[in-house]
Amino acid sequence: MQHNRAHHDDINVYGRLLQYIGYDEDTLDQNTTVISSNDKKFLTTKNKNNNLVSKLTSALIDIKNDTSSNNINQVFKHINQDILKLELSESIDSPTNKMILANIIPWDDSRLSLTIIESLFQHIRDLTGNAEYFKVFQYLRIKKLGMKRGFDEDEFMNLLQYKTFDILEALKMTLSDKGKKFWSMTLILSMKSLNMFNTLEEFDELIYWQSSSEKSLIDQLLNSFSKNDYKTFTENELIVYTKFMLMIKDYNTVIELIEKDILAKSGNINLYLKNIVVEACENIEDCGIIEKIYYSLLISLNDYQVLRKYVDFLIKQGKTKVEIVENYLNIKFEHFTNTRNFKLIKVYLDYKFFSKDHEFYYIDNYLKCYYNKPCVYPDLLNLVPKDILIEHLMKYESCPERDFTLYKLNGCNEMDLPTLKQSIDYKEHQLSQTLNEFDLKQIDESESTYKFKLLKMIHLNSLGMYSLAKKVYVDLSIKNVQQAGLNYLLNDIIPNNQQCSDLDFSFDELENYGYVLTLTLQKGNYSKFQGLLKFMFDLGNSNVMMYKQLHFIQKQRFFGNNKNYRTQFINTVLSMLRFGISDTKDPSLSLPDELINRWDFSSDTEILWKNIYLEVLILKALDNGSLKYEYILSLIEQKFSHKSNINNILEWQIEFFREYGLIANDNAKVVDFLKAIDFNDVLENFECEDKIPYEILMRYIDVLKTIKTLSSIKKFQNNKSLKNEIKNVLTFVRSYCESFKNMYINQMNDVSLNDDMKIAMESNIKQLKML
Predict the structure, then answer these.
(1) In the chain, what are the domain boundaries?
(2) Is 109 a residue whose pLDDT tops 80?
């Protein structure tokens, strides 16, 4: 197999070639960068293009230089038929083709050739979306070499930097290091939390190097522990081991091990362990053990979750309400009787026994301490009927907190509530309602609470005043991961030619979490790894992150700027298709949904998928129909309804690029397409009635952005007839700028504007004319 090898003397050349192949495009136009003439000479002359590494490298360069569907299909055919000599009538991973690949790959060579071939198969996956070559190579390497490649810890750490599918591959590969039991358990638990498998059988199928005749990796791990090992577990190791036992449904072992920890610490155990043992108790039927565990925990832990499960257990055992209160709560846990949790649990008992005695005995026991606290509403809303709760609250002295609770309970009817209007919560609620009803007057500047500032941001955004909204946002001092919960409230409405973006910060945050993950493993803090990894995936797959990516890409493309995060965007889309979209918005905020939804399409998952679909359609158009995008589009189409409303600007944009994609390769048809564009529904017939100022600005900008995106395709810059026609279309769209400017000004006349807001409005008008 000498002819299939790479040579050590050529490592610098292959390094340059692989860097070129994997180079992240800096522009949505076809990349004008070319490899050097010496590199081409190396491929065609020095190696005479007669070894596997050179042939695959040449094929990948052919794909890199032209990612159109037709070219990719041709190169695939060349790879399969001429380079790998596969059986074309069978799938790549068929037994026959695995055998062919097993024979052609230079397994007896140094690591250099295998590393380059692995990288080439990886680039095929990334450039085309075809992962089969890479999967088969990994499978064959394990079968041919076992783990001679070895586990490279530094490489694994590097893969944790949110390279989604490489992380998943790294998780599987890391399990092959059988010397690290707790690490392996942690990674298996992480894979489970990411829904990579549901059953143990599905897990075995993931481990492609494992023979069907071998014991499963999980069994091997379990058999590697002895009873004596339990005595030496650190708290960290105990958490990982019992979570693992929970996963395989060995509940008795979980309880046995954690019970020893409970006794040793008088119930004051780690909260991870508390949650694990509670879940185990829910899956057994031994009443004696269940009561013993709950009781032992509650001696030291004033935990409402455990307390409620304990009470439910006692009710199930036939205990009466009086017995539970007097013989258990008041005697066994006397030291906690006056706490909020124990007062609340007695109201819960009223709720559970209400059908028998039709009376709430313990509501005043709770209210006399908390009637003037915000916790009353969330604590009691689902336990006490509203009329009974209102009746009891009315017995207490009027105060802002009590009156606001009554106001909400009574359907936002102000009733006779003397101090209601002094309540900050009431003022915030009123402002929310005002904004929700699109009454966009100037907000109360006298208040400075966190919630008021957020509402002020929404108000300014609704008027199209991003610069002023950004000042409020900066004043909030939102840091780190808080960005993922609140950044969607800030929307840069009119595109501006600035390179920097808070999106850079968001990617930096993901990188930081990758660094934190490496630290947890280096320090052996395995119990934290699973949660951090899941959190990192949720953060990267979040509606807010995607919302920001889409806005940033669109804004950059508007001005033809180079940086566009195309690779990161596609990686995120593929990850979302596999794991779903995570909601990272701050759940503690009750904001005016209707108003938010009018500028924030991330609030509606279907609308978000449609916006993702539009972006991939655009990428397909710009890349002349890459196979990778066609495959992704087919998956995204399953995520939303296809009912179309042409008056909706998003539907119009989707239809626009879908139609263009069908005729993109025929310049004559493209010219006819441009001449026939109908702007009636999106521009001519646009009604500003009931629209907020933001929506007026965005209608004009969205249409202009659509045409400018098309004009950024290289063929429109190099073909004279296409260039002239797209210029005519842009001129026509810009002719509507004056009418949309006037609509915007008329809407703003109904709003109370201070001096700063007037300056911001004038700036908007000026920017609009310059687009």
Answers:
(1) 2-150, 462-770
(2) no
